[in-house]
Amino acid sequence: MRRLFRGFYRWVIVILAVIVVAFAAQKFVGDKTVEPHLVSSEPVAVIGSGSEAVAVADDGTVLTWLTLPEDVNLPQLPLSSAPKGPRVEGSVLEQVRVLAAAPPALRRYVAGSHFGESGVDVELTSGIELIFGSAGDAGRKWRAAAAVLADPSITALDYVNLLAPGRPTVGGSGHTLPPVE
Q1: Domain residue extents for the chain
Q2: How far apart are CA 169 and CA 142, in angstroms?
Q3: Which pLDDT tens digit goes with each residue over 90-129?
Q4: If you ran DSSP here, which 8-state letter would residue 66 be given?
Q5: How many other β-carbons are positioned within 10 Å of the β-carbon of residue 169?
Q6: Which pTM value belongs to this model?
Q7: Residues 145-154 pLDDT 10s
């Protein structure tokens, strides 16, 4: 009988030890359940052209796994080939952030971007240049650009300076505006 109690006692100690370890693990780790979530990687720009073209997502991730259809109409970034890392950086990332903020109604009129003296410049398919500067407040700058482009008193221009989105300035008369929809 004594042997039976000793075996039972050992099992009780093992069970209590497992409970203590489980409690301690929960205390130190906490409730760290892993939840799967899908990150959307919608392309907003392209690097290169033809079969060598690589899309770039709104966060700068280079979407090497995404096969682009031939009729895709994404703005061109000023790189001849994709960077070695998983993301674009520096001035190209600034350009991606500006392009990602473009309103859907204007996206098809965006030809590409470059980084000029004042920062990010976006070129429309009509040749009009939108001067953004930094990617900060890009949504507000795009709304200001849309308001200028929709102004019926303006029929042609060369650039829209959006450095101060509350007071955009325009200049030139060499390029026609995109059609209003």
Answers
A1: 43-176
A2: 13
A3: 999 999 999 999 998 899 999 999 999 999 999 999 999 9
A4: P
A5: 12
A6: 0.75
A7: 999 999 989 8
